[in-house]
Amino acid sequence: MELSYDLVVVGAGTAGIPCAAEAALGGARVLLVEKDQRIGGTMHISGGHMAAAGTRRQAERGITDSVEAHLADIHRISEGTARADLVRVVAENAAETIDWLDDRGFRFAPETPRIIYGHEPYATARTYYGADEALSILEVFERLLDEAIATGRLELWKNAPVIGLDTDDDGAVTGVTVLRGGQDVRVRARDVVLATGGFAAEPELFLELEGAPLVSAAYPTSTGDGILLAQELGAAVAGTGSYLPTFGGLPDPTTPGKANWSDRQLLIAAERPPVEIYVDKGGRRWVAEDELSIDVKERALTRIEDMTFWTVFDDAMLESTRSGRPLVVGWTPDDLRARANQRAGVHSAGTLEELAVIAGIDPAGLVASAARYNEAVAAGADPDFGRTHLPLPLERAPYYAIRNHGISLVTFAGLDIDSDLRVRRTDGTSVPNLYAIGEVIGAAATCGQSFCSGMLVTPAITFGRLLGRRFGGGT
Predict the structure, then answer these.
(1) Residue 203: exposed, middle, or buried by beta-carbon count in 10 A (0-12, 13-18, 19+)?
(2) Residue 219 backbone dihedrals phi, psi, to 5 degrees
(3) In sequence order, what are the residues at sequence separation of 6 or more whose Cβ sits closer than 8 angstroms to the Cβ of residue 337?
(4) What is the spatial distance between Cα 215 and Cα 116, in angstroms, rounded to a whole number?
(5) Higher pLDDT residue, 255 or 444?
């Protein structure tokens, strides 16, 4: 069986949905193919942060901003490592993207736009997200899909993985092969867009492309399908060597190699000045815990063994958080005490030596680091790392340690594309009729070797809409 469409979009997520819908609303006959049983992809777990300068919402709140200021911030944060051509397209169209969501009933979190400190912060409040994080974006997209499907020009297939890209004798893409209902279905198309997401749920591919061990908090369908499909046609991968971990996540209680983002520790000093110390496997401190730059912390984390560390604190430190922000999202001090030695990665003991043995830290190293830290608290100065927030010594049993890993929510490497979003081969030529948008192009394309707030979701939606409009009007 063979079917024919103007456009096939592979992946019904943050980039794929607006691309397919805009193309269909513009007149093209479109097939949107999703391997999962539900649409949305990473929107089911993402915070959905978006960034834009010059929006109506900024103006309503008296915030003065500009595209050039946004570009300057991205250049500063990424140290010039992002793709300047792609970033400019995003920045110049981002305000229209946010205003479009606004027009379609997007439920903004009331405090937005704001400056986010979970990444290196912008100088201006230009980050937006929904009242239900990325699920608020999905609400808009579901209505958009319904509207496009109602035209009769958009068809959505779920539980339908694409297993091959079809080409002619000249190497131009002519369609896809889809596994649907247990059968291979050939679908011809004038153009194909890969919007399949990243690969932070696929350990072998992650190690190959990112060169780092994977502790994943990613959506389970993030397995690199689009990259593997395109590589069979000679597509190039860009952004390798740009990997940065997200700073810290607790290990999943039951699944090795996974981390729980929902019950993460609060490790951003601007949001919760630390009472604890951080130590590596040898029991050594390795960074100023009150360092305000999360970027500095993330880069320091890449230099310690297995990107694994422990936050270590005593009962007085734990109790001091009762009236402020907690050590772990949603956990009171009593919750943490109850989960110690019950939940994976959360430990407690009567002495530092015992704690180290239970947690897997070198006992002598931890004891020495605690003594050195206590000297710094007494002196009011930290000669080793320059920490200035020194509220309490580490001396009152019981003692606690929580294991943290550098975790991966997104991937930095991805398909190389040109300025028109066409997939490029390793020789620099473009694969005819094949395009890529969203995380499949890698975070490095629009963030460089950094995390720029909103510069993953915003490019996905913006590129999706721009490309969909370009394909609209097909016959």
Answers:
(1) middle
(2) -70, 140
(3) 318, 348
(4) 24
(5) 444
